[in-house]
Amino acid sequence: xxxxxxxALLALLVGTLLAVQxxxxxxxxxxxxxxxxxxSSLFALLVAVLLVVAVVKLIFxxxxxxxxxxxxxxxxxxxxxxxxERS
Length: 87
Description:
The protein has a domain at 25-68. The protein is built from 2 helices and 4 strands. The protein has helices at residues 2-24, 42-66; strands spanning 29-33, 36-40, 76-77, 82-83. The longest helix has 25 residues, at 42-66.
């Protein structure tokens, strides 16, 4: 319990220090590909990446819910490619 408390306290301290640093200097991201450019602050890019990851995870979880395991192809037994026997 104490370990969890200290880890949470450390995460809070690191988050606070990062937030103070981002307020002082928000960073600058420039991505250029051909004639297209994308400019953003570091914080906005991190938020965008986290949103994309969350949406992708949501899509995969929804696909997993729509395709239950019983309808998926049977698993194989080891490296021989033989179908596993059910016991």
